[in-house]
Amino acid sequence: MSQLLNYKLEGSGQTLVLLHGLFGNLDNLGLLARDLVKDYQVLSVDLRNHGLSFHSDKHSYHTMAEDVVDLLSHLGLSNVILIGHSMGGKVAMKVTELIQARVQKLIVLDMAPVSYTVHRHENVLYGLQAVIDAKPSNRSDAISLMSEHIEIEGVRQFLSKSLYRVNDAMAWRFNVDAIIDNYWGILGWHTLSAIEVPTLFVKGEQSDYLLAEHQADIQKQFPNAKAHIVSNTGHWLHAEKPKEVIRVIRNFI
User: Fold this and answer.
1) What residues does each domain of the chain span?
2) In CATH, what number does 7-115+188-252 get?
3) Active site residues
4) What is the pLDDT of residues 40-88, one digit of tens each?
């Protein structure tokens, strides 16, 4: 048996599985989980190399999806609804391909089933490396080191949630080396054969991750897909407009 992912399972009823994005952890979709747990069983997961889950040199969508399938089997869960944001959206799509009969519905938050060709995280990776190199002794020093590379305060705050203390220095919970080594694979994508599971793609209006030009790729891989645009939001639509995203999810479920 391979190593199991760290997870949190709450509530009762139909199981919803929440999968976070790059540099995240199972708390990232906590705003969604806290609402949905009133009516559903919610499984929140730390993907490999993130949160409290195990570290590995391998970080492909196939391996990440297999981790989730192993966890679902371990917990005896089938007939699930998968909800994934960003990288977690791609993991959710791959899980659906692997166990199509066990997935009732799929919801993808601001991610397309395509390869992206532009490096989007250079400044983030420099900021993470600066913290690794300098070994700051507290969180605020780590954040100020990041600020030399990462302009947006919200991004620094988000990343800082994955800092923890090792001996006398701050370190990252996610596996920075594995993310750097596998970065183009994380941006990449192997086209899936057509999946009939009812699927909803939710786009942040101002985000460029999910675009009109991706429509053909989506329809080829997910012929049973619908789309919904959340206005005045970027890539972090669930953090910017949680009520609206929750309403969209509940309507689709």
Assistant:
1) 7-115+188-252, 122-181
2) 3.40.50.1820
3) 86, 235
4) 999 999 999 999 999 999 999 999 999 999 999 999 999 999 999 999 9
- The string of DSSP letters for 180-244 reads HHTHHHHH---PPPP--S-EEEEEETT-SSS-GGGHHHHHHH-TTEEEEEETT--TTHHHHSHHH
Q: Hey, what are 113's tokens? A: 């089933």
Helix (H) or strand (E) holding 6: none
Q: What is the reported pLDDT for 154?
A: 87
Please name every residue paired with 83 in a beta bridge, in sequence order, or none if there are none. Answer: 18, 107
Give CA–CA dist 160/171, Å, rounded.
Answer: 10
In degrees and rounded to multiples of 5, residue 162 shows phi and psi of -100, 15
Structure tokens at 243: 């009520």
d(CA 41, CA 39): 7
DSSP 119: -
Give the CA distances from residue 9 to residues 57, 63, 189, in Å, rounded to whole numbers and listed in that order.
Answer: 27, 22, 29
Are 222 and 189 in contact by the 8 Å Cβ rule? The answer is no
Cβ within 8 Å of residue 130, ≥6 positions away: 145, 146, 148, 149
Residue recorded with tokens 């620094």: 156
pTM of the predicted structure, to 2 decimals: 0.96
